[in-house]
């Protein structure tokens, strides 16, 4: 646990400020994603049968999330509650604990027992034509070569869980903590917001189920590292899928 007296909820104003930090980071992510897609289109990415420019795609996969996380960290440093010293790690509940890492790993692996059958059932429900994610559609049928495929694999497996957890179960979670919400209520609301934030309405129920073990890791460990590790375990199979789709 990263809890301390200094992490006690600070009330409505502190929660509102953290919510505004989350909103600023989310707007940054959306704006940079649109910009990256425009750059990719101008680079010829959408040309059927044409050469696929790898650089714009990797930028679109990584840069918006990284910038959003940096905005979240900067906003937390500037507007988070409590003393400035150690504010980011305190507000976001980040502290290195092997126990939290181990528990995150175990919860992530155990969560696959729930999420894998859910994914199969969901695919059968919506049909093969609708079952592919937006990420899968981007990589499907496009060959990039091993170096780019490895880069895409690492982004999906390791990097994306870090910046998503900073936003949703770091900043947003802390906003609700400041408002003294019940922890299970925080888990439920952040799970719903996380699933809707992907802007894939049809996949939102599946994303909600997939994110439950990740939220549980955050709740049970009291440490953002726990949910990051659980999220990375969850993303391993999609990352392998991306690698297999895009490698020659």
What does this structure look like?
It holds the Pfam family Rce1-like. The chain crosses the membrane at residues 16-42, 54-79, 100-123, 143-160, 181-199. By secondary structure, the chain is mainly α. It has one domain. Helices cover 77% and strands 0% of the residues. Mean pLDDT is 87; it is low at 47-51.
Question: In summary, what is this structure?
Answer:
This is CAAX prenyl protease 2/Lysostaphin resistance protein A-like domain-containing protein. Helices cover 77% and strands 0% of the residues.
Summary tags:
mainly alpha; 10 helices; transmembrane helix; 248 residues
Termini separation comes to 44 Å
The percent range for strand residues is: under 5%
Radius of gyration using CA atoms only: 18 Å
Low-confidence blocks of residues: 47-51
Order of helices and strands: HHHHHHHHHH
What is the number of helical segments per DSSP (H or I, 4+ residues)? 10
Q: What is the global morphology?
A: globular
Name the assembly state.
single chain
The total strand number stands at 0
Largest sheet: none
Mean of the pLDDT scores?
87
Q: How many distinct folded domains?
A: 1
Helical amount: over 70%
């Amino acid at each position: 646990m990263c809890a301390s007296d200094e992490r006690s909820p600070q009330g409505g104003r502190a929660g509102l400020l953290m919510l505004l930090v989350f909103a600023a980071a989310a707007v940054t992510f959306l704006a940079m994603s649109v910009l990256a897609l425009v750059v990719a289109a101008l680079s010829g990415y959408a040309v059927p049968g044409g050469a696929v420019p790898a650089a714009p795609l990797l930028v679109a996969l990584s840069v918006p999330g990284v910038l959003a996380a940096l905005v979240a960290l900067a906003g937390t440093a500037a507007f988070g509650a409590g003393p400035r010293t150690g504010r980011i790690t305190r507000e976001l509940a980040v502290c290195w604990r092997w126990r939290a890492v181990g528990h995150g790993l175990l919860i992530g692996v155990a969560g696959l027992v729930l999420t894998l059958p859910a994914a199969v059932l969901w695919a059968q429900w919506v049909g093969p034509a609708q079952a592919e994610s937006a990420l899968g559609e981007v990589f499907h049928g496009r060959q990039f070569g091993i170096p780019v495929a490895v880069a895409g694999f690492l982004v999906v497996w390791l990097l994306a869980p870090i910046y998503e957890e900073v936003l949703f179960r770091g900043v947003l979670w802390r906003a609700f903590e400041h408002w003294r919400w019940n922890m299970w209520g925080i888990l439920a609301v952040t799970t719903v917001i996380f699933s809707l934030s992907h802007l894939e309405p049809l996949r939102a129920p599946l994303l909600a189920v997939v994110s439950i073990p990740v939220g549980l890791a955050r709740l049970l460990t009291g440490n953002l590292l726990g949910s990051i590790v659980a999220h990375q375990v969850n993303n391993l199979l999609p990352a392998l899928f991306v690698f297999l789709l895009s490698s020659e």
